[in-house]
Every structure is written in C-alpha cells, then in structure tokens.
C-alpha cells in the first residue's frame, strides 16, 4: 500500500470580514502519495491559494488537520519548498546567489562548496548554465521562473508546492517549462502539489487531478492521469487527453454551477 506523504483531513477554514465569516474550505479531503504529483484545479476564488498556505504551515485551519509524513503541520517546515507565479528574485544578488538563498536559512550538512555545486547542477538541469552570474533583470520571465524553481528545491525538500508558477508566461514558454518540470521531477525525489487554472497543464504535469467545488470548497472530483512517466507536448493531442480535458471542463462547469449550460449545449 502506497503511503500518503500529504494528508488533508476534513479541513474547514473561513476568513474574518467586516460582514462576518467568509467560508473558503468546507470539509476538504486530499491525499497525496509519497513521490506523487497532484494538480489542484477549481473556479477562481474557491480557496486554492488558501490550500497552499495550509500545506506550507503558514496558517492553521479552523477545523480539520494537515499531515506531512505522519506529523501534523502546525507551522512552517524546512522540508517544504515553494514556487509562485511571481519569482521574487533579489535584484542585488546574482542568479546563483538567489538559488542558494534557502541554504543560508535552512540547516544543511552540505559544505559551502557542495551547496554551490548543487545550485550550479540545478541551473544546468533547467537550461541556465552560463547565467549563474547574471542579475534577475538580465533574464527573461521564463528564465527567472526556472531560477525560482531551482531555488525552491535546492535544499532538497520532501514536498514542492507550485502555486501557478507558469501562469504569467506566454504559451510557448509555458509549454517549454512543463517539459523542464518533468526533467527536474525525474532527477529530484519530491512529492508535488500544483495549483493551476490551466487544465492542459494539470494533466501534462500531474499523476492525479483534484477538482475543487465552488466556495466553500470541498473535493468534488478526482481524476487519475494516464500519460505515463515520459511525456511530450504532443501527448496533449491524443484522444485520451481530449477526453480527460472534456471531463475536467465539465467538472469545472459543475463547480461554477453551470452544469445545466453544458447539458443544454450538448442537446443543441
């Protein structure tokens, strides 16, 4: 039996507002197996970003529990890495220094030389060899996001949380980074959680896609992805992928309360 490295159990959460509590999550349940890669999709405002904060230990749920490797998450953990839509690289540091930043914060047994070798290895893995001495402003958006990804995993986290890291990029750069992500995943042993609005991205990168309902969110639908370990962009144009996307689009419409529109369109 595959052990769940991440377990979200009956999580409920609401934000305090001037007009009273605003429920965001309502009995949410998600399990991510060790070494797995799960994408979470759902309507805008359904609580996906709240989920990332709970996983990272940056906030606590009002009810329910979040578990990581058999331990309840009660605060930030060094075993979690995060990458966001905005890379947030420090302009006064070189790309190499930006990537090495977590190693200055998280306790590690690596020597300074080993830390630099690992950072250089990751930069080469994502196609940034030769750019180690550049400043963030000297790189394109896609290159900065590659550096951000390296920074998120340089300290060898058990869990990598990706909060729409490719959402602001153009289509060609985004697809290129999807394939880069697969190369990284093949070499770096981590359990991944991807928050995204892009359904194509979800089935290309993930082993499983979780669809959240409208706010307050619960786990509405779970789909296993069967593209295999080795993936190419062309895999998104197969009949199986087209069917998977059709099902996910329908589930999003259900979450938006638009399922009747879908049925009416099909009848016409």
Secondary-structure topology with pairs:
Layout: E1 4-17, E2 20-33, E3 37-41, H1 48-55, E4 63-68, E5 71-72, E6 80-84, H2 95-105, H3 112-125, H4 141-153, E7 159-163, H5 171-187, E8 191-195, H6 199-205, E9 208-212, E10 219-224, H7 239-255, H8 259-267
Helix pairs in contact: 2-3, 2-4, 7-8
Q: Would you tell me the overall average pLDDT?
A: 88
Overall shape: globular
Q: Rg to the nearest angstrom?
A: 19 Å
Give the strand line-up of the largest sheet.
Answer: 6-7-8-3-9-10
CATH architecture field of the largest domain: 3-Layer(aba) Sandwich
Q: What is the fold-level CATH name, i.e. the topology of the largest domain? A: Rossmann fold
Sequence of secondary-structure elements: EEEHEEEHHHEHEHEEHH
Question: Strand percentage, roughly?
Answer: 25-35%
Major sheet attributes:
6 strands, mixed
- Contiguous low-pLDDT stretches (5 residues minimum) are 262-268
The number of strands is: 10
CATH class of the largest domain: Alpha Beta
Query: How many structural domains can be distinguished in the coordinates?
Result: 2
CATH homolog superfamily of the largest domain: P-loop containing nucleotide triphosphate hydrolases
The residue fraction in helices comes out at: 25-40%
Structural class: alpha/beta
